[in-house]
Amino acid sequence: MKKTCIAAIVLAGFAATGADAQSSLTLYGILDSGILYKTHVGPGGSAWALGTGVDSTNRWGFIGREDLGNGLHATFDLESAFRISTGALINSGQPASAGTVLFDRFATVGLSSDVAGSVLLGRNRSPLLRTLARLDVQGYSNFGTLNTLLYQNLSGYDGYQYSWVDNSVEYLTPDLNGFQGSAMYSFGGVAGDMQTKRVISLGGTYQIGTFTAGAAYFTGRDATGATDSTTARAYTVGTNYGWKQFKFMLDFANFKNPLRNTSDNFYTAELAYAPTAFWTLTVTYMRQDDRVNSERNANLYKLGASYLLSRTTSVYSFAGYVKNDRLAALGLQNIAPTGVVGSNQLGIAIGIQHLF
């Protein structure tokens, strides 16, 4: 009897080892904080603050993967954002009274094939977000990059709704000789109504050598569910190119709300220069061109520098300035526009970031 028990334990150990070899679970995250100064953050004027996620949003998450054989895998991905200054959840931009959104950045489960691509179910990244992130040459920073676009427009949608979409199904192609594409449909989550809060988004990039081109489209119904009207429609086309220590990016994007008759064009140029393996210097210029009212035009300028202290820790510094016309409110970061319409904004930041 004793020998039988010992044999069973040994066999169970071998079975667990075999399962571990076919499955993986990864915990990861980003910690980012700095000192931030901005003018015209609201009626009170300028402010010094302990910035949370100045360069990258503070987050933690899990990635799970199980090998099912024949090139098929079961996957899941959970990611939650928080404010390092207080420890509070970002909560997908909703007030605490609306309830807790634990995995506010995404929460998906799906199947992935080496040959046919992946199907993901849950709260997905939109193809618009995926495309902009692949085009950006500054790591899709929260300070003065393509990341800013989703939050700094007059469509009526905020950046969370453009970025992560509830109740959605997303298909991602495999790498097809440099092409990667995605298509997403959100059911909206309202019983008996296929139109309310519905979102459709398509996107793709093509890479050959150090050249990348991409395009994406997004259309969303009223996110509040009060109407079935389309309140967000956006598209973008862009390209980037790497040459020696330089990376260049050009992008055009349009955001509109047909219900409110708003339409904004954004023209963005980025440069990243790495003189050494440790230093990276960045420059951004962004032009907001309001197609309905020229008094809502604006220009954004940004300079940045980052230095790697190790493989996972870096320090950075940014300086940016926005010149707003009389009715414009363009801001420097991936948060709501500047708090004072028609006011220019100066921002300076220095911070540290750690990856795990």
Offer a few descriptive terms.
356 residues; globular; mainly beta; disordered N terminus; 3 helices; 51% strand; single chain
Written account of the structure:
Helix content is 10%, strand content 51%. It has helices at 2-22, 127-135, 159-163; strands spanning 23-38, 47-52, 59-69, 72-81, 106-113, 117-125, 164-172, 179-186, 199-208, 211-221, 230-243, 246-257, 262-273, 279-290, 298-308, 313-324, 345-355. Strand 9 and strand 10 form a beta hairpin. The longest helix has 21 residues, at 2-22.
As laid out across the biggest beta sheet, the strand order is: 1-3-4-5-6-7-8-9-10-11-12-13-14-15-16-17
| Alpha-beta classification | mainly beta
Can you tell me the overall shape?
Answer: globular
Mean pLDDT: 91
β content, as a range?
Answer: over 45%
Oligomer: single chain
Largest sheet composition: 16 strands, antiparallel, barrel
SSE ordering: HEEEEEEHHEEEEEEEEEEE
Percent range of helical residues: under 10%
Total DSSP E strands: 17
Instruction: Please state the CA-atom Rg, rounded to the nearest Å.
Output: 22 Å
Helix tally?
Answer: 3
What is the end-to-end distance? Answer: 47 Å
Q: Which residues sit in consecutive blocks of at least 5 with pLDDT less than 50?
A: 1-21
